[in-house]
Amino acid sequence: MGRLDPHGETRFGASQMQQLVADVELLLTLAKAGAEHRGLIRLRSMAERCAEQHGELVFIGV
Prior knowledge:
This protein is of the alpha+beta class. The protein has helices at 17-30, 35-53, and strands spanning 9-13, 56-60.
């Protein structure tokens, strides 16, 4: 997740989902209970689905 551009658009393809899931798993060990934890769970779910369906995730900065 170190590749995320906070001001632009970042795309993760299906081939990058395994690393994204690993990054999210690490962050889950540090996340506070509540919204932060739930958001990471949702992100992990989306990444796993994208990997299965050969999709991509797009993050858009501010």
